[in-house]
Amino acid sequence: MTHPRFVTVEGIEGAGKSTCLNVIEECIRRRGLELLVTREPGGTPLGEDLRALLLGHRHDGMADDTELLLMFAARAEHLHARIEPGLAEGRWVLCDRFTDATYAYQGYGRGVDRARIASLETWVQGARRPDLTLLLDVPVEQGLMRAGQRSAPDRFERQHVEFFERVRAGYLELAAAAPARYRVIDASRTIDEVVAQITTTVDTYLDQVAA
Ligand code: TMP
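Above: the input record for the complex with thymidine-5'-phosphate. Below: its predicted structure, written as tokens.
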């Protein structure tokens, strides 16, 4: 039996992460593999409290560095309390966003120096990196339109189109720089087409590593 893998899903708002997570979960469970599904920021009681601070409007205007450090504080707790123990116990971990989101949103979006993010990444994660990352890529206008049909906008959803254009471009750059880990899904297609792309991608990956 091969070792469990750490799988992450990324994308701008409205890219369809929830559907994607469900499809991946089903593909992994169908193989009889143990799986832990979680999210960032969040995934632990402390992390979920930090998520409320990060996404809510009580602290609108917090400094970019504060935002960055809170993301990594939530991540440190998440790794310590759930991700590392889960993997050590033989469970696959499927996480809705991880450090690529920090590069995309805080780095490309807010303009925080990416070297700072890299040093926090090494400090907090050691050698831990996702094994597979699905990037749901969608034009910003299409994503924001979908996201806008949901609940009231959180602190990130209130950002301007240009912010999300930078985030999207950042994600595509990250994907191009790490082609072995990333799979880019064209999330602008119909739901059925996107589900089919994700299923094929994940099944192919599972054939490779978990045969
Ligand atoms: P979502 O996961 O429900 O889409 O919302 C989380 C929001 O937090 C989303 O706008 C992206 C943002 N975020 C960051 O800015 N940096 C991060 O490191 C993470 C994990 C999320």
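Notes for the reader.
Residues 13, 40-41, 71, 96-97, 101-102, 105-106, 156 surround thymidine-5'-phosphate (CB under 6 Å).
The two ends are 8 Å apart (CA to CA).
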